[in-house]
Structure formats: C-alpha cells, structure tokens
Fold:
Amino acid sequence: MKDYLKAIVHALALLVHRRAEALEIVAREPMRLMKVSNFSELGRRVDSIAEMLRVKPYPTAEAIVNSSEIAANEYGATVDNPVTLWDLHWLKELDDEGFIDDLLKDLHS
Structure:
C-alpha cells in the first residue's frame, strides 16, 4: 500500500510541477483510452484536473464533511467524528519520513 501511495504522490507531483513530463506520459495509453486525438485538448483536460490537485493529498475540511454526509444520507451511517472515515496513516507516514518533501526537492532541482 505504501508503494502504491508513493506512486500516486509522484504522479500528483508530476502533474503539478512538471507539466511537460506529465503530458508526455498521458499522451500515450491514457490519451487513447480518453478518446482524445488532439494534443492541445489533452493539455486542456490535464490542466483542468491539475489546477485542483495538491501534492500532499490530505483531504480538505470540505471533503471530510461531504464524505460524512454521503455516508449518512446514502448508507444511513451515524458518524460522530467525520475524520474516522479517513485512514490517513499511510500518507502521514510518507509525509513524516520526508518522502514528499524530498520528491519535491528532486523535481525542482
């Protein structure tokens, strides 16, 4: 799980900080699967996603509240503490180990 999360954080970092490299990767199989044939359209789509991303993907307060509301409304869950729906220990561990900060330093060097 930790390696999977590292890959996700790395992908987020590329999308946010190295657009050209990210587009080069996305222009392969993902572009075909998205049924996009125009590279500028692909860039527009990637940019529309990337502008909302954060390299440290901790949930926002809004996301925590929304997931709690969905759990209650859709599944009848009683949620006393909305944060209990989120397991952030893998992300926190990577962050505490310096993985994310080191990755960002590498990308900016």
User: Anything to note?
Assistant: The CA atoms of residues 60 and 66 lie 10 Å apart.
